[in-house]
Write a sequence for this structure.
């Protein structure tokens, strides 16, 4: 029920990406400008662009690889299981996690209803894992009550301080924590990273078959 209720918002804030599928994103280093520029690209070059569905998906993949810290998120959602996993298990999970997000959110382009994103506040703090920035935004149509979405950005110390989105909080609900609860539940039921990876492989295959 939670995922269904938040789907239109997550579809919008996740579908933020580059101007062309062959180019990497050139995003500002300032956190507020980073989010504002993502929003402009997403609306103009993905959500409103007169391109095929496949090209939209290609541009969305550019987004995940350039604007989101998918490696950090993948480690977070499986908790302590990451530390005990083998390198092969980690590599496979990271790929499956990315593919699952492409399928889940790439199928929701039509849920965009003309909303705009406005940056209203930025707060920063030092963190052992890399400096963090919380960018508060208001999302909605003109004349409607805006929904508050907080983007959590991390300066990756292993990548020259490059910014990457590691969480989205919609009206206080954390997407990363929601994912973590779901993935930890699967880990508990399967008992291993291999079991989790197999569940993801099966789910991705089923979704791809459904899409035809």
């Amino acid at each position: 029920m939670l995922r269904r209720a938040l789907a239109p918002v997550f579809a919008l804030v996740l579908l933020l990406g580059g101007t062309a599928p062959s180019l990497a994103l050139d995003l500002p280093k300032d956190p507020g400008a980073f989010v504002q520029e993502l929003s402009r690209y997403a609306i103009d070059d993905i959500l409103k662009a007169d391109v095929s569905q496949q090209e939209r998906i290609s541009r969305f993949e550019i987004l995940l690889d350039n604007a989101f810290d998918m490696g950090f998120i993948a480690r977070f959602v499986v908790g302590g299981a990451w530390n005990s996993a083998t390198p092969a298990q980690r590599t496979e999970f990271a790929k499956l996690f990315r593919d699952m997000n492409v399928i889940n959110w790439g199928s929701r382009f039509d849920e965009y209803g003309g909303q705009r994103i406005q940056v209203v506040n930025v707060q920063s703090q030092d963190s052992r894992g890399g400096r963090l920035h919380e960018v508060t935004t208001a999302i909605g149509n003109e004349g409607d009550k805006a929904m508050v979405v907080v983007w959590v950005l991390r300066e990756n110390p292993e990548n020259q301080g490059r910014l990457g989105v590691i969480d989205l909080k919609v009206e206080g609900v954390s997407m990363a924590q929601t994912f973590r609860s779901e993935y930890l539940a699967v880990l508990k039921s399967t008992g291993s990273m291999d079991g989790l990876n197999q569940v993801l492989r099966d789910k991705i295959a089923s979704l791809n078959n459904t899409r035809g």
Observations:
- Confidence is low (pLDDT under 50) at residues 1-9, 15-23.
- The helical segments are 2-14, 31-47, 53-66, 70-77, 81-84, 87-106, 175-190, 193-211.
